[in-house]
Amino acid sequence: MDRGSEKRYYVTKPTLPPLDKFTRLLEDIWNTKILTNNGKYHQDLERQLCKYLGVSHCSLFANGTLALTVALQALRITGEVITTPFSFVATAHALYWNGITPVFCDIDEETLNVDAQRIESLITPKTTAILPVHVYGHPCDVESIAHISDIYGLKVIYDAAHAFGVKKNGESILRHGDLSVLSFHATKVFNTAEGGAIIALDEKLKQRIDFLKNFGFADEVTVVAPGINAKMNEIQAALGLLQLIDFNDGNERRKKVANCYTSLLERAEGIRVFSEGESVEHNYSYYPILIDSNKLGMSRDALYERLKEFNIFTRRYFYPLISSFPAYRGLPSAAFDNLPVANRIANQVLCLPIYSDLEVSDVEFIVDTIFKIVGV
Ligand SMILES: Cc1ncc(COP(=O)(O)O)c(C=O)c1O
Predict the structure, then answer these.
(1) Which candidate, 97, 116, 89, 95, places its Cα nearest to that of 105?
(2) Could you give phi then psi for residue 168, rounded to 5 degrees?
(3) What is the tens place of the pLDDT at every residue in 237-257?
């Protein structure tokens, strides 16, 4: 039988702890009957994440989108915010839900992140912040972005949904900007089924974030702001504590998968792979490749469709660009001519399956299948 018809390869597969360990924590939650509202698992996960990530303040959230929305509220961001069109749509939606206009900036050819050299030309009197994304966990040009934000007095919120555990020059990438936002969605390398967090550099800001995520309550009778309910519950937090124990092990295994893809694909004509500089400790959350259809003799979309016949379900992250969706395509910054690199990359990118229990033999099968389809 054709091997492709036996096994299904999705772009990712959630990591889960041993069920009996989770059951023990659930039994405790059932006994205490404390299900949410800053319970002991919530407090413990915030502490453990600070320790693991090397950051001083962490506020847990029900999901990453609410965390982004609250991060913008916490810093009182208004007017226009410069961001990338090459991201998951939640990045721009968080701006929209705050009544903020996204201003799309083209991306850098090498990192696929916002092109820091183009930010300055997009600043207007209404600009209050920059919302870059560390796409696929590849660090943004944090130094240039800090330089621009210092000169123009702009806040910086990093959408770090893909960047759990990523370090640059030995330091967490989450220590840059005013705030960084994580997602713990099931598809992320560290997951709590649904979940997220805001990483803050100072205690007062964490306090404001904690008020905002709990309806604005500062104490039992004081509501200091029109907050929202965005709290992570105890079941999610307990799962997170167990996930953290195995994170390093999973990372090592994904690293092997990524290295295997790179060694098999780096010399392939018409396929571009990405490699981190030596200064970056990566989390191997995605394995994007870029297809040059002229050299490969096949378009990205054709390859994506053909791979499905072999049960290999890749994803075209991030196609279509956010700037092409109905809510955003009328914005001046969404014009095709303003975003030449992002538009080209969105038509070339394909994310291959990567997760911790993918074997080297699976990677070989996936790459062999690609070569078979394109006829090399
Ligand atoms: C870049 C980016 N930002 C924000 C989000 C939203 O996170 P969540 O799904 O946890 O709401 C995601 C992913 O889901 C994402 O990939």
Answers:
(1) 116
(2) -130, 130
(3) 999 999 999 999 999 999 999
If you average pLDDT over residues 20-43, what whole number do you get?
98
**Ligand 1: distance of its center to the CA of 260 in Å?**
27
Residue 176 CA to ligand 1 center (angstroms) comes to 19
Question: Of the candidates 161, 225, 244, 184, which has an alpha carbon nearest to the alpha carbon of residue 63?
Answer: 184
CB 290 within 8 A of CB 345: yes
- Of the candidates 310, 284, 292, the residue with the CA atom closest to the CA atom of residue 362: 310
Tell me what pLDDT residue 172 has.
Answer: 97
Number of the ligand 1 atom closest to the C-alpha atom of 185: 10
Q: What tens digit of pLDDT does each residue of 331-366 get?
A: 999 999 999 999 999 999 999 999 999 999 999 999
Residue-range domain boundaries for the chain:
19-245, 247-374
Our mutation pick for probing the ligand 1 site, out of 69, 88, 194, 286, counting the most ligand atoms within 8 A of Cβ, is: 88
How many CA atoms does the CB half-sphere of 356 hold within 13 Å? 18
What is the SS3 assignment for 351? strand
C-alpha distance from residue 195 to each of 154, 185, 239 (Å): 28, 6, 11
Does CATH place domain 19-245 in 3.40.640.10?
yes
Separation of CA 65 and ligand 1 centre (Å): 6
- 207-245 CB burial, b ≥16 within 10 A, e <16: bbbbbbbbebbeeeeeeeeebbebbbbbbbbbbbbbbbe
Cα–Cα distances in Å, from 142 out to 17, 95, 124, 172, 316? 34, 21, 21, 12, 26
CATH 3.90.1150.10 applies to domain 247-374: yes
19-245 and 247-374 share one fold:
no
Token duo for residue 96: 């929209």
